Amino acid sequence: MPGRWAAIAAWNGLMAVAMGAFGAHALAERLDPGDLAIFEVGARYQMYHALALLAVAWVMSRGESRTIRACAVCMVSGIILFSGSLYGLSLSGWRRLGMVTPIGGTLLIVGWLLLAVAARRTIRPRHAESTDGAVESMS
Questions:
Q1: What is the dihedral sign for C-alpha 53, 80, 82, 108?
Q2: Are 82 and 111 in contact (CB under 8 A)?
Q3: Distances in Å between the alpha carbon of 78 and those of 81, 83, 84?
Q4: Which of 40, 65, 97, 124 minimizes the number of CB atoms within 10 Å of its CB?
């Protein structure tokens, strides 16, 4: 399963770069500066969370759990709702899409919280203290 999430991360990175380039080149003259800025925030946050999904895949490769799977789902859902609503809002002018953006943002925040919990539970220190106080390798 980690490979699937790494691929999803890569696709999101690809889309973030494509959307950023589309915004900078194709939309620069078509959108007003406010809508262009909204579009760029969508692309930037999509890239941040594409990179975060790589961390999710790495943590998942160390040990799968419901927590890390929930994290991945929250991040992907958050990207779709947060970045997607910003793309749609800026391109269509339909301001009601802005009501979806905070839901996506909340999912991204929950995703980060779940990543912290999963990482703490999954990634163990390489050394542990033995009964006599000496440090032994657990590898």
A1: negative
A2: no
A3: 5, 8, 9
A4: 124
| Averaged pLDDT, groups of 10, the chain, 139 residues long | 94 98 94 96 98 97 95 98 97 93 98 97 68 49
How many C-alpha atoms does 107 have within 13 Å on its Cβ side? Answer: 21
Segment (H or E) for 33: helix 33-62
- 58: part of which helix (H) or strand (E)? helix 33-62
CA dist 119 → 28, 76, 132 (Å) = 40, 18, 29
Q: Cα separation of 6 and 119, whole Å?
A: 16
How far apart, in whole angstroms, are the C-alpha atoms of residue 49 and residue 42?
Answer: 11
What is the three-class DSSP state of 128? strand
